[in-house]
Design a protein that fits this description.
The chain has 653 residues and is an all-beta fold. The chain has one helix and 56 strands. It folds into four domains: 137 residues, Immunoglobulin-like (Sandwich), CATH 2.60.40; 66 residues; 83 residues, no CATH class; 279 residues, Methylamine Dehydrogenase, Chain H, CATH 2.130.10.10.
C-alpha cells in the first residue's frame, strides 16, 4: 500500500483556546487536524496514526515525554492514535507530549506514521515533518520563565504561593525584618540575607538565622533559636533567655535538672540536683566537636544513657569501674600447675601436680585426660595447638605432635620448672636444674646453656620465632632477668632485685612483663633493656600477654585477676575471687582468657574488644557518677563520644 498525505494546522482550534479566556483550564494537549490521501485519493475509513516529536526538521533527536492521543496515554514518547476516523481525507486528533516538551519555547516538529486501521502492518513514515508554530497571543508565555519584575498592575496574576525565590540583587529599599518594625516578631522563623545591615533595637521571639556578612547595630533580643553559620561582622549586644541556641561558637550554658530524666542537647551542661539517680540521655543529632557535660549536685548522682550506635571512649587517664567479667568454671578441681592456649584460644592444655595431662578443643568446655599421672610442672603450646611440650618436676620432658593424644619422653630426668615454645613448635626452651635447655627440632635433642654462672634459672618464655628468649633467676637473693636474641646461645643481664615468679613476652619479644612475689609488676617495651614498675604490690604468680603485647592478664595468688588494655600501664580488676591463682593463658588477640587455680578449677572468660577502653555500643552502654563527680564528653563522629576529663569515681558498662 502506498500512502501519501498533506497536512495543515487548524488555526481555528488554537484561537478558540486563547481568545475565549480559558487559560485557567489549559492543559498540555493541543488539537491537530490534517488531510490524508491514499493513492492520491482522499482517504476514507479508519487509520492508525502515530506521532513523534523532534527538535529538527530532519535527523535530530526525539523529544522524550509522556505522550498521549485523544486522552489515552501510550506510556512512551510516541502518541499512538488507533482507529482514527478519516472522512474525505480529513482527520482530527488531540495530542499531548507533556509540559516539558515545550517549556523552553524551542522549535518542535511532528513526524507522522500511518497504516490502515485494525492492521498489524508496519507504519509508513510520512515526509516531511510538520513544524508546530506559535499562536501570536501565546508569544508572551516565552518570557514568563524569565520575568524580571513584579508589578502591582498585574493584580493576583502572581500570588505568594507561586513565587519560589527572588534574586536578592533585584531587591531595593529597606528590607522589613519584622512585621512590627522595631517591635516583636510574630513569625516562626526569620532569615536575614547575606551582606545586609540591621539597624535599631529588634526582638525575635521565634527564631532567627543570620547568613554570612550580616552587620548588627544596637541591641538584638532573641528568645528563640539562633543560627549563625558563618559568624556576624559586628554586634553590640545579644539579649534573651538563650533557649534553642545552636551553631554559635563559644556558647555553652548549664541547666539544673530537678527531675529524674533529661534529654541532653549539644553544647549544654547539666547539674542533677535530685536525691535519686538522674538519667541524662545523650543527644542523637550533633556536630563533631560539640560538648555535653554532667556534674552531680544531688545525692542521687547521675547516669548517662546512650542511644543506638553510641559509645563513650575513655580518654587517657580516665578510669571507669566496669562490671567484673563472667568467669565460667571448667574441668574439675585439681592441683593445677600450668595452662597454655593456642593462638585462637580454641585448643587448651593444662597440667596438674600428681595427675594426667588434660586437653580441650572447644575453649575449655570439655576436657580429655591424656598420658598418665605425673608430677607435672609446666606446659606450652604451638600457635595451632597441635605441638605441645610439658615438663615433669624431677622427671623428663614430654612432647606431643597430635594435640596431646600421644606423648613421647625427651632428654633425662631433671628438676624441670618451666618450658616455652615457638609459634611453630620447632624451637623449644626449658629450665631445669637451674640451667636453660634449648631444642631446635621440636624436642628431639636438647642443649644446655649456663647464664653467667647463675644456678637458679626457673622461668623462661619465648618470642613467636624462638630467637628471643627471656629467663628469670628466681632466687630470693640472686633474682635477675636475662635476655637472649640468638635462641639461647648468648645472654645479657637485665633487671634484678626480686623473687621473680611470673614472666611473659609479646610475640615479637619487644614487650616484656614480669611479676615479683610479693611486689609490683614490671614492664619493658624495649626487649628488656629498661624496666618500669606497674600495678599493685601483689603476689604475681602468673602473667600472659596477647601477641601484640597490648592486652595482659596477671594472676595475684590468693586474691584476684587483673587485666591491662595498654601494655601494662594501667590495670583493672577482672575477678576479685580470692582463689589460689597459679597459672593464666590468653589468646593471641587477647579476647579469650584462661585461669587455673591451685586445688581448684579452671576458669574461662571472653573479654569484649571495648573493655576498659569504651562503654558498650548502644543502649546497653552507660556511665554512672555520684554526687560531686563530673564528666566532660566531646562528640567525635560515628556515634562516638570522647571522655575528655572526669572528676571522682565513675562506673559503667
Amino acid at each position: 500500500m502506498k500512502v501519501n498525505a498533506f497536512f495543515k494546522l487548524s488555526c481555528i482550534v488554537f484561537c478558540v483556546v486563547f481568545c475565549c479566556g480559558l487559560a485557567q483550564a489549559q492543559t498540555t494537549a493541543f488539537t491537530y487536524q490534517g488531510k490524508l490521501t491514499d493513492m492520491s485519493l482522499a482517504a476514507n475509513g479508519q487509520y492508525d496514526l502515530m506521532f513523534r516529536l523532534f527538535d529538527t526538521a530532519e535527523g535530530g533527536g526525539q523529544i522524550d515525554g509522556a505522550a498521549a492521543c485523544n486522552g489515552v496515554a501510550s506510556g512512551s514518547p510516541d502518541a499512538v492514535c488507533d482507529d482514527v476516523s478519516v472522512s474525505g481525507g480529513i482527520f482530527t486528533v488531540n495530542l499531548s507530549f507533556g509540559e516539558a516538551a515545550f517549556i523552553n519555547g524551542e522549535q518542535r516538529f511532528l513526524e507522522i506514521h500511518v497504516r490502515p486501521g485494525a492492521s498489524t502492518d508496519e507504519y509508513t513514515r510520512l515526509s516531511p515533518r510538520q513544524e508546530i508554530n506559535s499562536s501570536p497571543f501565546s508569544m508572551k508565555s516565552l518570557r514568563a520563565a524569565a520575568a524580571d519584575s513584579l508589578s502591582t498592575s498585574c493584580v493576583l496574576c502572581v500570588t505568594d504561593a507561586k513565587i519560589q525565590s527572588i534574586d536578592a540583587s533585584k531587591l531595593t529599599g529597606i528590607l522589613p525584618i519584622t512585621n512590627g518594625g522595631t517591635g516583636s516578631s510574630t513569625k516562626n522563623f526569620v532569615d536575614l540575607f547575606s551582606n545586609q545591615s540591621v539597624f535599631g533595637n529588634k526582638t525575635f521571639n521565634n527564631g532567627v538565622t543570620f547568613n554570612s556578612g550580616v552587620t548588627l547595630n544596637q541591641t538584638l533580643t532573641i528568645n528563640g533559636s539562633l543560627d549563625v553559620p558563618n559568624g556576624i561582622v559586628s554586634a553590640d549586644q545579644f539579649h534573651g533567655n538563650g533557649d534553642g541556641l545552636f551553631n554559635v561558637p563559644g556558647t555553652f550554658k548549664w541547666q539544673a535538672v530537678t527531675g529524674l530524666s533529661q534529654q541532653a542537647q549539644p553544647n549544654n551542661g547539666y547539674l542533677p540536683t535530685n536525691d535519686a539517680q538522674v538519667t541524662i540521655t545523650l543527644p542523637k543529632n550533633l556536630g563533631i566537636g560539640e560538648m555535653v557535660r554532667v556534674s552531680g549536685a544531688g545525692s542521687g548522682g547521675w547516669k548517662i544513657a546512650q542511644n543506638d550506635g553510641q559509645s563513650i571512649i575513655l580518654g587517657s587517664g580516665i578510669k571507669v569501674t566496669l562490671p567484673p567479667l563472667v568467669w565460667t568454671p571448667r574441668a574439675v578441681a585439681r592441683n593445677w600447675q600450668s595452662v597454655a592456649s593456642s593462638a585462637d584460644g580454641t585448643k587448651l592444655v593444662a597440667v596438674p601436680r600428681n595427675g594426667q595431662i588434660y586437653t580441650s578443643s572447644d575453649s575449655g568446655v570439655r576436657w580429655t585426660p591424656r598420658d598418665v599421672n605425673r608430677n607435672w610442672r609446666s606446659v606450652a603450646s604451638s600457635a595451632d595447638g597441635n605441638k605441645l611440650v610439658a615438663v615433669v618436676e624431677s622427671g623428663q620432658i614430654y612432647t606431643s605432635t597430635d594435640s596431646g593424644e600421644t606423648w613421647l619422653p625427651r632428654d633425662t630426668n631433671r628438676f624441670w620448672t618451666s618450658v616455652a615454645s615457638s609459634a611453630d613448635g620447632t624451637k623449644l626452651a626449658a629450665t631445669g636444674d637451674g640451667l636453660v635447655y634449648t631444642s631446635n627440632n621440636s624436642g628431639l635433642s636438647w642443649m644446655p646453656h649456663s647464664i653467667q654462672n647463675s644456678l637458679n634459672i626457673g622461668l623462661i618464655v619465648s618470642s613467636s620465632d624462638g630467637t628471643k628468649l627471656v629467663a628469670a633467676d628466681n632466687g630470693y637473693s640472686t633474682g635477675k632477668i636475662y635476655t637472649s636474641d640468638n635462641s639461647g646461645v648468648g645472654w645479657q643481664q637485665r633487671a634484678h632485685g626480686g623473687f621473680w615468679q611470673s614472666l611473659t613476652t609479646s610475640a615479637d619479644g619487644t614487650k616484656l612483663f614480669a611479676g615479683i612475689d610479693p611486689g609490683p609488676l614490671f614492664v619493658s617495651h624495649d626487649s628488656g633493656v629498661t624496666w618500669n614498675a606497674s600495678g599493685y604490690l601483689r603476689n604475681w604468680y602468673s602473667i600472659a600477654s596477647s601477641a601484640d603485647g597490648t592486652r595482659v592478664l596477671a594472676a595475684d595468688y590468693g586474691f584476684g585477676l587483673y587485666f591491662s588494655m595498654d601494655s601494662g600501664l594501667t590495670w583493672i580488676a577482672v575477678s576479685q575471687d580470692p582463689r589460689s591463682w597459679l597459672s593464666v593463658a590468653i589468646s593471641a588477640d587477647g579476647s579469650k582468657l584462661v585461669a587455673a587455680a591451685q586445688s581448684g578449677l579452671i576458669y574461662t572468660a571472653q573479654i569484649p574488644a571495648h573493655y576498659g577502653r569504651a562503654t558498650s555500643v548502644g543502649t546497653a552502654g552507660y556511665l554512672v557518677g555520684g554526687q560531686f563527680t563530673s564528666v566532660e564528653l566531646q562528640y567525635m563522629g560515628n556515634g562516638q563520644f570522647m571522655a575528655l576529663s572526669a572528676v571522682g569515681p565513675l562506673s559503667g558498662n
